[in-house]
Design a protein that fits this description.
CATH superfamily: Winged helix-like DNA-binding domain superfamily/Winged helix DNA-binding domain
Low-confidence stretches: none
Number of domains: 1
Shape: globular
CATH architecture: Orthogonal Bundle
CATH class: Mainly Alpha
Mean pLDDT: 89
Oligomer: single chain
Helix content: 40-55%
Distance between the termini: 24 Å
Order of helices and strands: HHEHHEEH
Amino acid sequence: MYEINCTEIRNEMKPVELIWKCLAFLDAKAGDQVSESLFNRRSTKNSIVDSEQIEAALEVLNEAGLIDRLPSNKIQLTAGLNTIADFSSRTLLPNSNGN
């Protein structure tokens, strides 16, 4: 179990970390489905990561086999949060400054 607070999500600078922190905040597990709108600015209050970065991050996670993108703007976790967190710590994305 991760202890993630809203301030960490609002101040996150890396899109993949923003995604896994949102999932951790919900205590999501492999097999769970969530709406992609969970990661947008209105939901996260994050003004650092833009929607293009979220889209790129979701594609990278999908290509890595960590999530499945489903119809109606949903994703399904195919890996656990530990795997996604590990992946986020070692993966740079397009438009990511690496911080």
